[in-house]
Amino acid sequence: MIDSLGFMLFETPVSLLLLVPTIAGVAVAVGAADTAPTFLPVPARLIGARLAWMPALTLAAAAAASLGQLIGPAIPWQAGLRNTLVHASLAVATSALGYISVAWLPPVGLTLVSMLFGYPPSEPRYYWWALIMEKDVTSGQWAAVTGTFMAAALLYALVPARRSHLGKHPLVTAPERQADPFVRTKR
Question: Which of 9, 91, 104, 137 could link 29 by a cystine bridge, Cβ 3.0 to 4.6 Å?
Fold first, then answer.
C-alpha cells in the first residue's frame, strides 16, 4: 500500500498491485506494435492472427502483473485483470492510431489522474471514471472494460499503424526522392 507520491498525500492508501497493470498494459502495446516500415497488403489471415495475438499478449501481461498476489492477495485477481484490460486498451488504441512512441501516456495519465483526483474530498469511495483504483469489480465495470478492450482489439487488427511510416517507403515517395537522401544532386 502506498499513501503518498512524493509530496502529495493520498486520502486513501492505494495498493501497489492496482498500479502494476499500468506497466503491463504498456508492455502489451509495445509487444503488439506494428513497426514494420513496409506497406504490404493486409490479408484476412493476418487480421485473424492480430485478433488472436493481442488478447494472448494481454492475458500473459495480466498473469505477470498478478504474480505479486502470490505473496499475499492484497486485492482480488479480478481487479488486476480489469486494470490490465483498461491499460492495454488505452495503450494499444494509441499505438494503432500511429502514436507508438506515446502509447505509455494514456495509461500513466489515467493512473496519475485517478490517484490524485479520483475521489471526492473526505469520502472513502472513488468516482466512476477512476475505476482502476477500486478493489472490487462490478458487472457494469466488466461490461465497459470488455467492450473497450474489444474495440481496441478490432482497431489493432483492422487498422495497422502505418501513419508513422508515411513517406519512408520507396513506393510512397516521389521517384526523384528514391535515391540516397543524404546525397545532394543537382536538378
Answer: 91
Q: Rounded to an integer, what distance in angstroms lies between the CA atom of residue 169 and that of residue 143?
A: 41
Distance CA 43, CA 155 (A): 16
- Dist CA 35 CA 94 (whole Å): 14
pLDDT band at residue 126 using 50, 70 and 90 as cut-offs: confident
Question: How far is C-alpha 185 from the chain's CA centre?
Answer: 44
pTM for the whole structure = 0.75
Going from the C-alpha of 130 to that of each of 12, 62, 125, 150, the distances in angstroms are 13, 19, 10, 20
Pull the grid cell for residue 58.
Answer: 494481454
Report the C-alpha gap between 162 and 41 in whole angstroms: 12
Convert the pLDDT of each residue in 4-29 to its tens digit.
767 767 666 676 777 788 888 888 98
